[in-house]
């Protein structure tokens, strides 16, 4: 086997592994589903869409009607519909297309943004390295990093909301639990989300209605972290 073929094979394996780059998190206790006080956010233009026109129009960034009791500045991840809402208030939200956890790695619960990073480094988790020992121990931030242009780390877990260099994964169940957006969209969301912001991840359930008209949880509803580790693959 030539050195060229070995290098090509190793690169392909690394790219495949990077696509599933998020580790599972430990189960968390129940969280109250109440809205803290938050400032009002100025509305944005309705034609503010993702730069990648190849995306399904449903997954392009846009302002939509969205009735919720959550405070402006909150983030709601609609897992079954593969969209994320940034709450603007006054019945409006910015909707982004996302990629979510693959079968066996979806979860639901309430978290807070613990920190934010631009062009973050990627450290493959120990579980992934155990299964794929050829992976690097760290990948420096940059255009080739699987976390993309920005990352928002969810406190008490190894989950992140981050970018991706592969926009074809948006709208699909592909990760090990992390939530991914196109680099253009994650840069926009990053500029709006504050450290400490509430992030609500809705459970994976069969979608019965469109995302805009899906039933919204009552403010007092409680949600539990529910991670299914049936899959042994990262």
Low-pLDDT segments: 1-19, 23-43, 45-53, 217-234
Largest sheet: 9 strands, mixed
Number of domains: 1
The strands making up the biggest β-sheet line up spatially as 2-5-4-3-12-7-8-9-11
Beta-strand content bin: 15-25%
Number of helices: 3
Task: Give the beta-strand count.
Answer: 13
Which secondary-structure class do the elements indicate? alpha+beta
Write down the Rg. Answer: 18 Å
| Overall average residue pLDDT | 75
Element string (H = helix, E = strand): HEEEEEEEHEEEEHEE
Q: Alpha-carbon distance between the termini?
A: 28 Å
CATH topology call? L,D-transpeptidase catalytic domain-like
- What is the CATH architecture assignment? Beta Barrel
Name the CATH class: Mainly Beta
Helix fraction bin: 10-25%
Tell me the overall shape: globular
Briefly characterize the structure.
This protein is of the alpha+beta class and 234 residues long.
Question: What labels would you give this structure?
Answer:
234 residues, 3 helices, L,D-transpeptidase catalytic domain-like, 14% helix, two-stranded antiparallel ribbon, disordered N terminus, 13 strands
Protein described:
Helix content is 14%, strand content 23%. The protein has 234 residues and is an alpha+beta fold. It has one domain (3-223): L,D-transpeptidase catalytic domain-like (Beta Barrel), CATH 2.40.440. Strands 2-5-4-3-12-7-8-9-11 form a nine-stranded mixed sheet, covered by helices on one side. The protein has a two-stranded antiparallel ribbon with strand order 1-13.
Q: Could you give the topology of this structure?
A:
Blueprint (H helix, E strand, L loop, with lengths): L2 H16 L12 E2 L29 E4 L9 E4 L4 E7 L2 E6 L2 E2 L7 E10 L7 H6 L18 E5 L5 E3 L10 E3 L3 E2 L2 H10 L5 E4 L20 E2 L11
Parallel strand pairs: 3-12, 6-10, 9-11
Antiparallel strand pairs: 1-13, 2-5, 3-4, 4-5, 7-8, 7-12, 8-9
């Amino acid at each position: 086997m030539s050195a060229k073929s070995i290098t090509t094979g190793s690169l392909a394996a690394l790219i495949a592994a990077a696509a599933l780059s998020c580790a599972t998190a430990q189960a968390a206790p129940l969280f109250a589903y109440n809205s803290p006080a938050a400032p009002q956010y100025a509305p944005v233009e309705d034609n503010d869409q993702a730069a990648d026109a190849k995306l399904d129009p449903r997954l392009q960034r846009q302002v939509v009607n969205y009735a919720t009791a959550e405070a402006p500045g909150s983030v709601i991840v609609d897992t079954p519909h593969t969209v994320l809402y940034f709450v603007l208030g006054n019945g409006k939200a910015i909707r982004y297309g996302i990629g979510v956890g693959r079968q066996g790695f979806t979860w639901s619960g309430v978290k807070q943004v613990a920190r934010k990073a631009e062009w973050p480094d990627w450290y493959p988790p120990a579980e992934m390295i155990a299964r794929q020992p050829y992976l690097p121990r760290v990948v420096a931030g940059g255009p080739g990093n699987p976390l993309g242009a920005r990352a928002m780390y969810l406190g008490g877990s190894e989950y992140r909301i981050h970018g991706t260099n592969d926009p074809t994964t948006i709208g699909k169940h592909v990760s090990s639990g992390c939530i991914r957006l196109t680099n253009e969209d994650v840069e926009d969301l990053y500029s709006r989300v504050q450290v400490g912001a509430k992030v609500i991840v809705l459970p994976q359930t069969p979608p019965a209605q469109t995302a805009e008209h899906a039933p919204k949880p009552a403010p007092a509803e409680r949600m539990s972290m529910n991670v299914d580790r049936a899959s042994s693959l990262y």
